[in-house]
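Sorry, explain these tokens?

***
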Amino acid sequence: MFTNKKNLYLLKSIRIVFILFLFVSFVSLSAEETPKEGPSPEVKQEGSDTATKTSIPLEDREDNKTRMDIFNQVYEHRLMLRGGWGIGKLSPAILNETGPAWFQNSLFRQISEPGAPLSIPYKPAKDLGVNSQFWDIRYGYKNKFEIQFAEDTSLGVYSRDLPASNNFFSPRTDTYWASSFEGNRLLRFEGVSQHLRFSYTHPFSKIFMIGPSINFHRYTERNNISYGSYSTSRPEASVPNKVTWSIGGDANAEYSMRGILPGIFTKFKLRDWWELRARVELLDRKGNFSVLGSQIMQEAFADGSSHLNAVVPAYGGKVRDKGTIINLETSFQYCRFTLDIGMIRQDVKRTYESYLGDTVGNVPRSDYSARSVYIGFSEMSGSIKHTITEFYIMPGVSFFYDADKIY
């Protein structure tokens, strides 16, 4: 719990610093480009006549005279290596889909298993913290053409003290007492995004460039999850006063997707050593998913006897993510060294084009809540939210080249 609070404070601090950088940048720009109304104040200078003080446009400042199509004020070619760390917030689809899907699946079960307990969600999962790692390699020519290979990894490991679960309520039926239980818990999340980007930015002025980009994108996601269930049969049931509950087990839900993402990339130079960048990409990736694991069930009977059984959840199918990826970044340069502070936001709607599988075992199906039933009509019936917001800091080093030498 202490680590979670520490990460939350650090996330808020990085977010505030990043917002302040952007605010100072735009305030500085507005102050320098907005002409002052009324007569300019006159200042006396020793040994000279009275001079009129005028505001200087941003692109004419002494420390902002280099064109953006030249690296480090001299070179045409640049190879940049960066690596860094970040923290963020995650709203995982694997948990967001559980509430509505389990409820609808429990309704479908009434067709084949009348009187089976319903699974009504009453406590959805909250946003979770993640730690992130970033690295990329960039080659640029005249700051117009750029090739970038980048990878960012979001990792979250959760415990019983963290709100990484969905809770459910089962109302009383003719054969079961009312109960509440934890249906799905996320133990570990790992999302890895790989990007191969090609960009062209056209200089519309000495300090502003904008152009298209294309991203050959690959995404893998690994979720370690556990399932819960609890039911108690009433004396009127065929097996009276039987308690069935899940005491452990876990499953791995893995996703592998690819896509080609078009986007817009912009650069804005505040100083020769200070640059702002923004990239917006339309996300559309699709691929396969699989869920496989085990769930240990304990059955306790009225005579005091009990025994353990294992059931196996096994699912698979086609999955698709659509949405946007937004990246905002402020970059500071000294000689060949850079320090970049930024934010990446992924807004995703996940849908299943096909969803097949079942939870198999010798425990009566009506006594516990399974993930899905045969065909995942509930999972395929709508879209699920999946969002990641990350703030990062990335130091980097560059190597420059032109016809004369390498620096």
